[in-house]
């Protein structure tokens, strides 16, 4: 009698794809990368999803039945990566979905951008903000949004920001978001979208 296991596996996969959609699913099982490649690909993909999506995503690692001693090398590598991404504010939680996949909850963009505590006894008055030289090539609208987010980040931790603090925060915020935005002709628009999402999260 023919086993129904492959058909059942295909059914679960079809249900997952319908539930999460292509944009929210990373299938590492299909391309059979090495453990290092899987880790690097998952990290880049999760960072990119964080600035364009919200909520849960699905990462399919496979069970690793063909691996030595039946240990899922890719699954183990992704499990090792996730705590690091949580410390860096990229993901907030995860759980096993099936023995070969994980549902991962993306952290908010503000978790990624959360400013470090600065010890200041008194807030300072806001002054004019000069555009940092490193950001001069950005579009004017991008700079306006980046400045608004920088001010918002600083005020969240109790600083009514002076110009130099805002400029530094603009550079820090840009550096963190730009690393998560995919290259391409629409990259700056994607960056503006990510900045806008971060601003709206705190409204």
Strand order of the largest sheet: 1-2-4-3
Structural class: alpha+beta
Mean pLDDT: 79
Largest sheet: 4 strands, mixed
Name of the CATH class of the largest domain: Alpha Beta
Question: How much helix, percentage-wise, in residues?
Answer: 40-55%
Give the number of domains. Answer: 2
Which fold name fills CATH's third level, the topology of the largest domain? Ribosomal Protein S8, Chain: A, domain 1
Number of strands: 4
Brief account:
The protein is an alpha+beta fold and 203 residues long.
Question: Strands, helices and their partners?
Answer:
Blueprint: H1 5-20, E1 25-27, H2 28-31, H3 35-52, E2 56-60, H4 73-87, E3 91-98, E4 101-106, H5 109-113, H6 140-156, H7 163-178, H8 187-201
Parallel strand pairs: 1-2
Antiparallel strand pairs: 2-4, 3-4
Fold and architecture overview:
- The structure is a single chain.
- The protein starts with a helix and ends with a helix.
- It has 8 helices and 4 strands, in the order αβααβαββαααα.
- Helix 3 crosses helix 4 and helix 6 (140-156) runs parallel beside helix 8.
- The protein folds into 2 domains: 5-107, 2-Layer Sandwich (Ribosomal Protein S8, Chain: A, domain 1), CATH 3.30.1370; 111-201, no CATH class.
- It has 203 residues and is α+β, with helices and mostly antiparallel strands.
- Helices cover 52% and strands 11% of the residues.
- Residues 115-127 have low confidence and may be disordered.
- The chain is elongated, with a radius of gyration of 21 Å.
- The protein has a 4-stranded mixed β-sheet with strand order 1-2-4-3, sandwiched between helices.
């Amino acid at each position: 009698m023919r086993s129904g296991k492959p058909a059942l596996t295909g059914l679960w996969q079809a249900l997952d794809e319908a539930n999460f959609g292509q944009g929210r699913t990373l299938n590492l099982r299909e391309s059979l990368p090495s453990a290092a490649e899987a880790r690097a690909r998952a990290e880049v993909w999760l960072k990119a999803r964080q600035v364009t999506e919200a909520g849960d995503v699905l990462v399919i690692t496979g069970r690793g039945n063909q691996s030595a001693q039946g240990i899922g090398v890719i699954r183990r590598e992704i499990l090792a990566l996730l705590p690091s991404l949580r410390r860096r504010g990229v993901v907030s939680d995860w759980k096993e979905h099936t023995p070969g996949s994980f549902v991962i909850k993306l952290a908010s963009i503000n978790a990624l951008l959360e400013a470090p505590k600065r010890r200041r006894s008194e807030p300072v008055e806001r002054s004019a903000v000069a555009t940092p030289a490193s950001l001069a090539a950005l579009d004017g609208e991008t700079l306006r949004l980046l400045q608004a987010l920088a001010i918002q980040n600083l005020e969240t931790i109790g600083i009514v920001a002076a110009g130099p603090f805002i400029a530094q925060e603009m550079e820090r915020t840009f550096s963190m978001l730009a690393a998560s935005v995919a290259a391409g002709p629409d990259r700056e628009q994607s960056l503006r979208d990510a900045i806008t999402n971060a601003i709206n999260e705190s409204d």
